[in-house]
Design brief:
The complex is a heterodimer of chains A (about 425) and B (about 260).
Chain A: H1 11-19, H2 22-31, E1 33-35, H3 44-63, H4 73-82, H5 87-115, H6 123-145, H7 150-161, H8 170-178, H9 185-214, E2 233-235, H10 236-261, H11 291-299, H12 303-315, H13 320-323, H14 335-356, H15 361-388, H16 399-403
Antiparallel strand pairs in A: 1-2
Helix pairs in contact in A: 3-5, 3-9, 3-10, 4-5, 5-6, 5-10, 6-7, 6-9, 11-12, 11-14, 11-15, 14-15
Chain B: H1 2-18, H2 45-57, H3 83-91, E1 94-97, E2 106-109, H4 123-129, H5 148-156, E3 173-174, E4 182-183, H6 204-219, H7 223-252
Antiparallel strand pairs in B: 1-2, 3-4
The chains are: A mainly alpha (about 425), B mainly alpha (about 260).
Chain lengths: ~425, ~260
């Protein structure tokens, strides 16, 4: 990489950089050779960084006014909404920001699935990403508990109770998590503490995620290795910066629409009722972004196995680089995988839908079929597909299809492939 | 750009498929024109003031509104009573204060800074006075019900004779919009129940609309500011997006690649 040769122009810069090579780092980040054929699905990394920073800043501000106490939490949220200057704006950004964060992360993950970004040599980036995703779910869940509404309280009760499924020690663990014999003030204060901590863990992992990315460089829609720097790459600044910026602004328009015109549409009405341990809501449902996993949990009749299935559904992603046996990264050249990919997308959306419905009758049946298919996809279809699938010829470089003026690679297909 | 539209349509699709309102029972709520809906939605000031009158003369005998203060009644974006009016309203309530220098609690007329006086001392007292049912606090009630304003508006007008196959206990009433159709609150409104100062005819429909508007404001006191800022923010973002789009085109024209 060229950045090793970098030397600041000014004397002061050189003096500083010899002691702490921050300028070298800055130079590496601006010059970072990026494949020039990245499409808009690749802009979600930047968008996610924006989401994280937004959540941290709005979260810090909310924490200045919020009171983590079972008797005062709900009231302090109303205080923020009514009396704190622009408190309503900060809270609505934070609450909808969580949804936006998950929307972006799902697009980011499914982009990776489509273009095979998780494959060698990018397994570590992928695994760090999965850990970030897990932490995001933990942070979002605990954040949802903080307003101490009905859904907060009962959501917390349902989710923490999952641990009671662990044989022998389960009940003890649940009591330990609660800090008592039910979800109560000690639960709220520790959730607040952890909710405050986790974003900074995520921030650290994001640094590692990007660091790990900068070693092999970005994957790209064609899914082939590119020489860096070369005709196939552009420097990160200004090319990718402006493109990410443009995509981010589009995203912010959607974000702003929710914040200003439909701030409560993604939440549940019951959470505007103060928590009441004596009254159970008719339906206890998590936020929309957790629904697919909630559906998997409920589709298994046994509690312990349900929890195992739900956790496996997430953890199975961590071993995805080894489950997918195909040497070809991009689905563009994998006609069969491409179809299974879209079936998986539909499957997850269906799981999300049935997760929001009562677990009974037809909904339960659909949830079970969809859960079975989810695991089938990763455990059977992906490993077998790598051996059986007849892939399309892959171009030798990005420039080929790009110069061809189209991304369907019709021209590239006639060329000899180095893989076949 | 083509990808962008694909992306946007997928985002819309995801949210459309997720606009799950669980309270969306099969009942069709009564509809009315709410002035506060839409991009430029604002409250109807006169309706808010009438709604406050309905609240304070009818609802407030059982329902508290503990997150509101009398000063809110004079704040911009609300009923916008004059400060003198709001002071007079506050002063018409007896507020328990103290302890004074003798260690005694005492009562005094309300001030702007006081919270709305509650009809009962606590939840238990409220339940005891209402046959065991707690009349919910109304501060954020419209946000705490699946159907929102349409639900409240319909519920207030939804009292009917119970069908012959439904048997009602004492103190339970039939309401076609209530979840399970059984409600512990007797029909609160009847034509001419309040006398509006501005001469508006106080029909059940009119009072329902006014008080629901008032409840929307009490749940979202900054709704008008939110709509105004939202419009500005989105227009600003769109302009900036267009400018950045052309900058991007210009920058990327240096390389033979599509954006």
């Amino acid at each position: 990489m060229s950045d090793h040769d970098y030397r600041p122009k000014s004397k002061v810069g050189q003096w500083f950089n010899d002691r702490l090579p921050l300028l070298t780092l800055a130079n590496h980040l601006t010059d970072y050779p990026t494949p020039k054929n990245l499409n808009y699905w690749w802009t979600f990394g930047g968008i996610l960084t924006f989401c994280l920073i937004t959540q941290i800043i709005t979260g810090l501000t909310l924490a200045m006014h919020y009171i983590a106490h079972a008797d005062m939490a709900f009231e302090s949220v109303e205080h923020i909404m009514r009396d704190v200057n622009y408190g309503w704006l900060i809270r609505y950004i934070h609450a909808n920001g969580a949804s936006m964060f998950f929307l972006a992360v799902y697009i980011h993950i499914f982009r990776s699935l489509f273009y095979g970004s998780y494959k060698a040599p990018r397994e570590i980036i992928w695994i760090i990403g999965i850990i970030i995703y897990l932490l995001m779910m933990a942070a979002a869940f605990m954040g949802y508990v903080l307003p101490w509404g009905q859904m907060s309280f009962w959501g917390a009760t349902v989710i923490t109770n999952l641990f009671s499924a662990i044989p022998f020690v389960g009940e003890g663990i649940v009591t330990w998590l609660w800090g008592g014999y039910s979800v109560d003030n000690p639960t709220l204060t520790r959730f607040f503490t952890l909710h405050y901590l986790i974003p900074f863990l995520i921030l650290g992992l994001v640094v590692l995620h990007i660091w790990a990315l900068h070693v092999p460089g970005n994957n790209n829609p064609v899914g082939i290795d590119v020489k860096k720097p070369s005709k196939d790459t552009v420097p990160f600044h200004p090319y990718i910066v402006i493109k990410d910026g443009f995509a981010l602004l589009m995203f912010m328009i959607v974000f702003a629409f929710f914040v200003f015109y439909a701030p409560n549409i993604l939440g549940h009405a019951d959470n505007y009722i103060e928590a009441n341990p004596m009254v159970t809501p008719a339906h206890i449902v998590p936020e929309w972004y957790l629904l697919p996993f909630y559906a998997i949990l409920r589709s298994v009749p046994d509690k312990l196995l349900g929890v195992v299935a739900m956790l496996s559904a997430i953890l199975i992603l961590a071993v995805l680089p080894w489950l997918d046996t195909s040497k070809i990264r991009s689905a563009v050249f994998r006609p069969l995988y491409k179809q299974f990919y879209w079936i998986l997308v539909a499957d997850v959306l269906i799981l999300g839908y049935v997760g929001a419905m009562p677990a009974e009758g037809l909904y339960l049946l659909i949830a079970r079929v969809a859960t079975a298919y989810y695991f089938l996809h990763f455990l059977v279809i992906l490993p077998v597909l790598g051996f059986k699938e007849k892939t399309l010829p892959v171009p030798l470089s990005i420039t080929e299809p790009v110069l061809g003026g189209s991304t369907n690679l019709a021209a590239a297909r006639n060329k000899e492939s180095k893989i076949e | 750009m083509k990808n962008l539209f694909k992306l946007l349509s997928i985002i819309i699709l995801i949210f459309a498929s997720n606009s799950y309102s669980f309270a969306a029972e099969k009942v069709e709520y009564l509809k009315t024109d709410w002035s506060f809906k839409g991009l430029f939605g604002k409250f109807d000031r006169a309706s808010l003031q009438r709604g406050y009158q309905v609240y304070t003369e009818v609802c407030a005998s059982c329902h508290s509104m503990k997150y509101l203060s009398y000063r809110n009644l004079a704040e911009p974006g609300g009923p916008e009573f004059s400060e003198a009016q709001a002071k007079a309203i506050a002063a018409s309530f007896e507020v328990t204060d103290g302890p004074n220098s003798d260690g005694e609690m005492f009562t005094r007329p309300g001030k702007l800074s006081d919270k709305f006086v509650m009809p009962y001392d606590n939840v238990k007292a409220a339940q005891a006075a209402n046959g065991g049912a707690y009349p919910p606090d109304m501060s954020v009630l419209v946000k705490a019900r699946g159907g929102g304003v349409d639900y409240i508006y319909s519920l207030l007008q939804g009292y009917e004779e119970a069908p012959s196959n439904v048997s009602l206990d004492d103190g339970v009433y039939y309401n076609k919009y209530m979840y399970g159709n059984k409600i512990r609150m007797a029909a609160p409104l009847s034509d001419g129940l309040v006398e509006y100062g501005d001469g508006t005819n106080a029909t059940v429909e009119q009072m329902s609309k006014d008080v629901t508007t008032f409840l929307m404001w009490s749940a979202e006191p900054h709704l008008e500011a939110r709509h105004q800022m939202g419009f500005k923010a989105i227009v600003y973002l769109i302009i900036l997006t267009v400018l950045v789009y052309f900058s991007m085109k210009k920058i990327w024209s240096r390389v033979e690649s599509e954006v």
